[in-house]
Amino acid sequence: MAAPAGSLVAAVLAHSGRLDKEDLGTRIGRLSRRVEELKGEVCNMINKKYNEFLPSMQSAEELVSQVEGLSSNIDLLKAGIENEVTRDLNVAVAEFTELKQQLERDTLVLSVLKKLQEFDIAIKEYNTALLEKKYVAAAQQLETARSNLKMLESRKGFELKILKALGTELTVQTQNMLYHLGEEWQKLAVWKLPPSKESSSLESVVHSELHLHTVPSKEEEIAGPPVASVLQAFAVLGELHTKLKIFGQLLLKYILKPLISYPSLQPCTEEQSDVFILRFKSKESSLDHSSPVEVFDKIRLVFEVLHKYLLNVPVEQPVEDKKGCGVTLAELLGDMIWEELSDCLIQNCLVNSIPTNSSKLEQYIEVIKSTEEFEKALKNMQFLKGDTTDLLKYARNVNSHFANKKCQDVIVAARNLMTSEIHNTVKIIPDSCVALPRLPDPGAGDRSKMPKASEVLHNDMGNLENKTKLSQYTFSLPTCRISSSVEKLMELAYQTLLEATSSTDQCCIQLFYSVRNIFQLFYDVVPTYHKENLQKLPQLAAIHHNNCMYIAHHLLTLGHQFRYRLTNILCDGAATFVDLVPGFRRLGMECFLAQMRVQKGEILERLSSARNFSNMDDEENYCAANKAIRQVLHQLKRLGKVWQDVLPVNVYCKAMGTLLNTALTEIVTRIAALEDISAEDADRLYSLCRTMVEEGPQVFTPLPEDDKNKKYQEEVPVYVQKWMTFKELMIILQANLQEIVDQWADGKGPLAAEFSAAEVKSLIRALFQNTERRAAALAKIK
Length: 782
Prior knowledge:
Blueprint: H1 2-15, H2 21-131, H3 135-154, H4 161-188, E1 189-192, H5 202-205, E2 209-212, H6 218-223, H7 226-237, H8 240-261, E3 265-271, E4 276-282, H9 292-311, E5 314-315, E6 327-328, H10 329-353, H11 365-380, H12 390-396, H13 398-418, E7 425-428, H14 453-460, E8 480-483, H15 484-501, H16 505-529, H17 531-536, H18 538-562, H19 568-571, H20 581-607, H21 619-643, H22 649-672, H23 679-695, H24 706-714, H25 716-719, H26 723-734, H27 737-744, H28 750-754, H29 757-767, H30 772-780
Antiparallel strand pairs: 1-2, 2-4, 3-4, 5-6, 7-8
């Protein structure tokens, strides 16, 4: 407290600098007293607080001492627990665990013994039931024994050697049971089949029989049919599916499929006192395929018999197969064989019944109704489920199948025609037309009913008509020969399009594009299939050329003729074949031009043996040249006969003119290239050329009548480009220098029109000796 008092005194002194010493002492005394008072108050306050705190501190000290006592007691208890209680607890847990394990072992042993007992009881009851022919009860006991054995085998860590022996015993008893059931089944359903090697023929199928010993006696009607007991036992053992599958395959192979395949086969039934017999009898039939109505009636009869005497039995499938619980034997058999039976009915019956003509489609309603009734009957007998099957869907979709079948038949027929012989021909004249029934008039509202612009103009401005008219044959195909198969092919195309006009829209479209496919197939098949003959035989190449031109000629207007009679989808410009025309023309021309190249090659090859027409004064050389000329003429005459009355006259003349021109051009070229021609050589060359000029026109015989061919033989210069050149060459070979100069006529004469100045000078130098007259003549050739 001294420090604050000193500070206070110092502060007072600082503020009382002007006071005198007396006042200062007084004040200091007063302040000192005040300080003492304050010190007393503070001491009193401290004592008061201490007196209040002391009892609390004493109480806390007592609590601390109590806590320390409790803590020591806890430590003693903890030590006691750890030393004594824990040891006793561990001992108790160990004893409990041991007792628990012993209980589990005893329980397991007890359950195993119980299962073994149940297995033994099941086997004993099985044996008893089997002796009494209670097959269902016996099968159930076997299944009970099997389930007990499976449970024993599933226990891990508990393996018994006896289980293997029990499994063997169970297998033996199961096979024994199946053997007895098999014997019973064979007695119930007896098949009498032909030898396996002859099972496919009608004669052997007639001898197939099925004997059902399931006709119940009076006692069995009360106790239940034995077939039910046998089949139910098979079901319990899980073997029903196997037995039924074998039965179904035999049923398909020896009864159902033969009834579908052989129209003359009829099912025959016979019921005796203890057996029902299903056999066949054969009657004469002129049909290649059975009608669906008859086939459905036959198969329905078979199923009715089977349903009555064999398959109308409810069976319980094994527990694992919960889906099959509570179904009839007929339903199980139907699931196994229906798909194969349905496919057989479609492929061997319904497919053949599809009409080949759209007019018969309405009659097919009877087949659809018969199919519906057939399926309904099978559903009533529980062979089929409630869903619509593929069989009925196929029958109802007859329009599509008709179109597909028609298209397929058309393509097959077309291909057969394409692969037939080309050389069988018919003559086509401008008046020829495809044998086609009159097309129906377009229906009401058809665009073709609208007045045409040409008719309006004709009515309003008839006086403006041009007096000069085109010939009726202007746009006709010229007279020629084509393959009879191609004529039939075109008739097939017209008939198919006519069929399309009275068909449904979808069928119409398919038939239209089938016709297009015919021509596209021709384009691909014929050149490949007949390739070798077309290359080797000139006549076939010419016929193929005509065939292609004939098809192209009809394709120009084929689409237009049917345009307004097809479905609306095809009426807007799609119904056309014009796009195929260039391809067919090119196909015919390429084939014929290839043959022309072959013939040209042969002509040039023969002329190559003429020894360049040089040194004709040598007898051997002359004979070789003469032989070559004769061979060429013989080749041309042979071609003229081969192509006679085959090619159109204009094509014939152009072709023969081209080939003769090839020979003349080669001869002119060879002679013009000679450097020295003696007088004797010139005479012999002239003789050879005269042979060509005299006999060359005779190769032009386009028509069989000789008197009609003179016209074309006189027009040889029109078709042979080098004909006048060749004749001018003959003139040169026999002319003197003055005559040659006169023929040249300062480049304006006939010689100048065929030869160049250089060629004429070369011939003059080869024919005449080097004299002043020759020089003068050469000077005039400019």
